[in-house]
Design a protein that fits this description.
The protein is an alpha+beta fold and about 230 residues long. The protein has one domain: Glutaredoxin (3-Layer(aba) Sandwich). α5 packs across α10.
Length: about 230
C-alpha cells in the first residue's frame, strides 16, 4: 500500500554539539551485531551503570500516551527533546491539537523517543525517570528552555532544570547514568529509523497510514480527520 506523505522537511537536530559515533562497547551492550554497529547513528557514550534499584526501569520505559487509549485514531509522534521544531510543536501546537482532538477522545497521541545526540539522550532519560504527569511537565520545561541547556555544559544545566521539578542531584546522577534506560532509548531510536524509516523530527504517523513530517498543525489536523477523527467545535 502506498503511504500518503505530506510535505517533507528535514533539519539538523542541534548544531555545534558533539555528535560523535556511538561507542562499540555501547552497541555491544545492546547485543548488536556487526550490521547494527555499522548502521547506527552516533552520539551516545556508555555511562557507568547506576544501581539497579536507583530507578524503576519498568515505569521509565513504559509507553507515553496522551488521551484515551481506546480513541479511534492513533498518532505516533517521533521527537527529540533537543529539536527546535519538536519544541515548536510542543509549545505552540500541541495545546490546540490536544483541545480539539485528544481531550474529546477522538485521538490518542503516543510519544516515541528519537534522541539524535548526547544532550537529547540525557534529556529523554530525565523525562522518563520523572514519569507520569511529572515527566510530561518536565518534557515541556526541557523543550521550552532549549536555549539555556543546549551547549557543552548540558548536563549541568539539565540538572538545574531537574532540581526545579523536584529531582535531587543523586536522583539526577542515577537517572542519567542508568545503562538499561540508555540502551532502551538507543535501541528504540535505531528500531524506528530501520523499521519506520524515521530520519527527521518531528515525524507523525497517523494510524500507520498517513505520515506528516515537520511541525505542521494543519497537515496533522488534515491527516487525523482523513483517518476519521472529528474536530471539536470551538
Amino acid at each position: 500500500m502506498v503511504v500518503p506523505t505530506f510535505r517533507i522537511r528535514r533539519h539538523p537536530d542541534v548544531r555545534g554539539l558533539d555528535l560523535s559515533p556511538l561507542s562499540r562497547r555501547s552497541l555491544l551492550g545492546l547485543g548488536a551485531g556487526a550490521a547494527v554497529l555499522s548502521a547506527l547513528p552516533a552520539w551516545a557514550q556508555t555511562a557507568p551503570a547506576a544501581p539497579a534499584a536507583a530507578i524503576d526501569i519498568k515505569a521509565a520505559t513504559a509507553e507515553i500516551v496522551y488521551g484515551d487509549p481506546k480513541a479511534k485514531v492513533t498518532v505516533v509522534e517521533y521527537a527529540s527533546l533537543a529539536c527546535s521544531h519538536c519544541a515548536d510543536f510542543e509549545i505552540n501546537m500541541l495545546p490546540t491539537f490536544k483541545k480539539e482532538f485528544i481531550d474529546p477522545g477522538e485521538v490518542k497521541l503516543v510519544f516515541r523517543d528519537f534522541p539524535m545526540n548526547a544532550p537529547g539522550l540525557r534529556a529523554h532519560m530525565l523525562m522518563r525517570c520523572a514519569g507520569g504527569a511529572k515527566g510530561l511537565a518536565l518534557k515541556t520545561a526541557i523543550m521550552k528552555s532549549q536555549h539555556s541547556w543546549l551547549n557543552q555544559d548540558y548536563l549541568k544545566h539539565l540538572s538545574q532544570i531537574a532540581r526545579l521539578s523536584g529531582m535531587s542531584q543523586e536522583q539526577f546522577d542515577a537517572c542519567t547514568s542508568n545503562k538499561q534506560l540508555e540502551d532502551f532509548l538507543i535501541k528504540s531510536q535505531y528500531t524506528a529509523s530501520q523499521e519506520k524509516q524515521i530520519n527527521s523530527t518531528p515525524t507523525f504517523i497517523v494510524d500507520d497510514n498517513y505520515v506528516v513530517m515537520g511541525a505542521k498543525l494543519d497537515e496533522l489536523t488534515e491527516a487525523v480527520q482523513k483517518a476519521g477523527a472529528k474536530r471539536k467545535a470551538s
